[in-house]
């Protein structure tokens, strides 16, 4: 009795599984204040069996989720927080990463093929060659035909992995992105697990009709993929099933969003034209929200489902720009070149010179994504002189992130016809203050960074807590907690603006060369 009477009473709590490319986290929030109470993180191993191949172990991913849950619950208990107050769990995940498993044994039939894997490049080229005018956007899914998306990865698995082909033929195969795998396993697996996904993850497969919000029979036929292996498409906020094991057994899983859509919700981008930039460990995403109607890009962007916050709620759409390598540049400089030991050291190195001294860095390690969509492009560092040192290269690496963001922002402004007045940012790289200021200077608009950095997990928690049957988190504008933020204003004069534009053009020419050289 003494122990229970000392427990901290906080009202309803909502948890989020944040399963990313490099790590898994489990976070618990106060549903009334959006305060983060506790969390735990586990790194995920990647394997690279061949050049351009990137894989992860589905069992390791699942085990990391259970470990993060258990450790977080232990931390809450140590804080005298009653874990029975956790009323719902949301899932947010790395998108496009592709898995196939056996529904009878519950065993994965191959490693997860990660979104930035390039093994399907020849398949993509063959598909593009079959389209009229070699048009990458022929399928009208809002996505170009690219190695990035799940359909070609699934096709490769069916063509090259005997266990997958046999399971498809014998009706034992289940396909899903990471969210589907986790929800199926957590809700019972082979003993009645729920095989589902949400509209945001489904819209990244090249098999999904963004107008009907369901799998498209013609697209499935085009890729020769049987529809019976696909998960059921649900909204981003509804009860999918209950946890069947672990310390949170019996708690509903009631929110599901691809990680970038979750960050949109977490940053409360519920108004048309609001834009969020997500500077993740591996990838830059830039979203511009368009409510209710999808807008097709004419400038190399993706049209995607932003979220659908309830079974009876309308879907909201977004234009998205994706760049394959952002924060991974830091890891490359550390692990491959050895010029820094930590990510914080990069900021210090770059700040020590304050310029790249004419050095341009195009980190096309996995090809170029938006707005080029050139998978054969390769990285370039140019403009080197005898004077160039590692500090200049560090500054060029930060500039590369900013120039890529501006490329996407320029395309968005052209597609929307409405110049953006500020950029909201999120993700691990936002801790680099030099990068934030450099981004504001290169974009010539303010960059706004929320003081609470966990907006991706927060968005998944919000969707879960707002679901019908849970209803502990209100998404009405008047009820949303005000998010405190820090604003980085451009610190550049008119003469400097011309210099920035010239540097941007230099970077763009270098990027275009990286694609043409590879070709």
TrEMBL record:
InterPro entries: ATPase_NBD, Carb_kinase_FGGY, Carb_kinase_FGGY_CS, FGGY_C, FGGY_N, GK1-3_metazoan-type, Glycerol_kin
Pfam families, A to Z: FGGY_C (PF02782), FGGY_N (PF00370)
Cellular location(s): Cytoplasm; Mitochondrion outer membrane
Iron keyword on record: no
Record domain Carbohydrate kinase FGGY C-terminal: where: 293-467
Domain Carbohydrate kinase FGGY N-terminal: start-end pairs: 14-266
Xref: CDD domains: ASKHA_NBD_FGGY_GK1-3-like
A GO biological process held by the record: glycerol-3-phosphate biosynthetic process
Keyword set, alphabetical order: ATP-binding, Cytoplasm, Glycerol metabolism, Kinase, Membrane, Mitochondrion, Mitochondrion outer membrane, Nucleotide-binding, Transferase
A molecular-function term among this protein's GO annotations: ATP binding
UniProt GO cellular component terms: mitochondrial outer membrane
Pathway: Polyol metabolism; glycerol degradation via glycerol kinase pathway; sn-glycerol 3-phosphate from glycerol: step 1/1
SUPFAM superfamilies listed in its UniProt record: Actin-like ATPase domain (SSF53067)
Ranges in coiled-coil conformation: none
The family this protein is said to belong to: Belongs to the FGGY kinase family.
NCBIfam families, sorted: glycerol_kin (TIGR01311), PRK00047.1 (NF000756)
Protein name, entry field: glycerol kinase
